[in-house]
Amino acid sequence: MLDRAIQTAIKPVLNRVAQGLVRLGVGADAVTLTGFVIGMAAAVAIALQAYVLGLVLLLTSRLMDGLDGAVARATQPTDRGGFLDITLDFLFYAAIPLAFAVANPAQNALPAAVLLAAFIGTGSSFLAFAVIAEKHQVASTAFPDKSFYFLGGLTEATETIAAFAAMCLWPAAFPLIAYGFAVLCGITIAMRIVWGWQRFG
Questions:
Q1: 126-171: per-residue pLDDT in tens?
Q2: Taking the CB of the first residue and of the last residue of the chain, which one, N or C, has fewer CB atoms within 10 A?
Q3: By the 8 A CB rule, do 71 and 27 touch?
Q4: How is residue 138 annotated by DSSP?
């Protein structure tokens, strides 16, 4: 829901940093892979209950995720880069709830499982819509720079990162945050099913 506004606000800064990286010969795929490694380090830190470190690494990882697209646009976007970006993003989003489950299985295992099930719904509806949109040659006007149709909802990247940050700041409240965010994901799934039903009818 907030992705478009956030991306518009930070795009000038990301573009300037991207231009510097391009001058240094750094490619978009390298930025994507670096961000993913940092994201996995965040998951490890959370699993070890180093929540503040996990938060710092998590936010750094997502900054890199925004930066790789800027680097790609400053050079030459590729289908391989788009594929790598979305695949590693989904692995990152799954790793964080899993890390909280590992950190405190007795308290967090069930809410983490519920949240991961909700993520499967949001992820599958997101990708299924993108596949059919490509078949019908439908372009996204909200996110024209993306390598495929970028379908929104209540729980986009910005909201997910905010939820993850809240979990790191208040780890004892993980179950409440996870269940609450899973409900929002459920609403997003329902919205996307309706949108797909109407759009591709």
A1: 888 888 887 877 665 454 555 555 666 788 888 999 999 999 999 9
A2: C
A3: yes
A4: P
